[in-house]
Structures are given as C-alpha cells and as structure tokens.
Fold this sequence. Notes:
By secondary structure, this protein is mostly helical. It has helices at residues 2-30, 34-41, 44-77, 83-95, 98-111, 113-120, 129-154, 157-165, 170-181, 183-199, 202-207, 218-228, 231-255. The chain is globular.
Amino acid sequence: MQLISFKKMSIFLTFLFTFLLFLSISSLILVPKFEDVLSSIFNPEMIYSLKVSLYSSLISTGIVLGFSIPTGYAISRYSFPGKSIVKAILDLPIAFPELVLGLALLLLFGQTFIGDILEFFGIKVVFTKLGIVVAQIFTALPYAIRIVCSTFQDINPRYELVSRSLGYSEFETFKNVTLPMARSGIFASSIIAFARCMGTFGTVLMLAGGTYMYTETLPITLYLNMSYGNLGMAISSGIVLLMISFIAILIFEKYEGGKF
C-alpha cells in the first residue's frame, strides 16, 4: 500500500514539474505578439548576434572536440598520478557559476604572464571576439569530456586487446577500433557542446564584454535589450535560443547511445 502511494506521489510530482516547466517555456512563445517577434528576428542587431553566435560556436565546438576526445580517452582508459584531482578540476566549471569562470579567465588572460605573452605576439583575448571563442571553449569543454569519457567507458576493452594482439599499435587501435565504436557518443557530445556554446552568457560577458554589435552573442542581445527595456528583442532572442536548444536535445536523444 505504501509502495503504491509512493509510486502515485512520484508520478504526480513528475507530471507537476513537467507541466510547470512546459508552461513557463510556452509562455515565452505564447505571450508576445507574433508580429513583434517577427520584426525583432529580422532586426539587424538580431541577425548580427545570430551570426556571431553561430560562427563562434562552430569554431569553439571543433576545438572542444579536439580536446575532449583525447582527454576523455585518457581518463577512461589510463591510470596516472593525480587522476582524481584532474577529474575534479575538469568538472569544476560545471559546478560553479559562469560569471566566476569568466572572472577567472579575465584575470588569466589580462593579469598574468599568459596574457602578456599573447599580447606580445599581437593576440588579444580580453574584450575581443577571440574572447567569445575562448569563453565558450572553457564553458563547454567539461560537458563534452564527461560524455566522451562515459562513451569510452562503455566500450569493452577486450576489443582493443584483440586488436593489439593482431599487431595494431596503440594509436592504430584507437583510430580503427575504438574511435568508430565511439562515434555516437562523440556526435552527441558535439551537439551538447554546440548548444552550450550558443547559450554561454556569463563567461562571454566577463571575458569578451557585452559590446553592442561587436562581441554581441544571442544571450548578450537578450541581456542588453532587457536592460534597455526592449522586451520584444529580448523575448525574440530567448525564442531563438530556445529553438536551438530544442533541436539540439532532439538530435541528442535520437543519436545518443549508439542508435545510428
């Protein structure tokens, strides 16, 4: 009897939260007038921020994949000194607010020898478009590493042992055996990384600044227009971000777990 009551209560709470979440998301689409949303979407500021967001997110996602695959493989397959500390540090950006990560990056590239070295070679990160890419990489990379690492952990190491016994080197085994088997997880991680890059706000605001029509991404457009009191533009930015996230989640659910 108690088990049945607990089951009903659990299902009720699940439906209740799902309904409230659906209601809040729907209000973003249903409350504003369609004409206002349409005119805001074709506003030059919106088009500019959408282009900046797409270009920077595509570049950032490619770099994130380049780091997350070897890092995820190393964590899933090898034992090395300080592994638990490395995993904890890599997971830190998931736990603390983006603004804190952005502040840390601002100090790293603006107040340390790394920033001085980059500036010596003419590379400016702080308050530039390059800062957008750097901020997106540091925000999305921990998520991508977790997915890729989990994917490699699900692959039976016996396949790699058989490959090594047939004469393949460690890298050849990784390239010809492990990597093809992990393609679904890698694809899923790229989708999540892209969605995280598109939605990065606090880190971009702190490192690249929120300069109008320069370092303006979609979340920055939402923030700036809310500050100005231009709700139409702010809501339209939110709708575009919502649609991108929705498509990303659909693709993730479809291909996650080796279903293609």
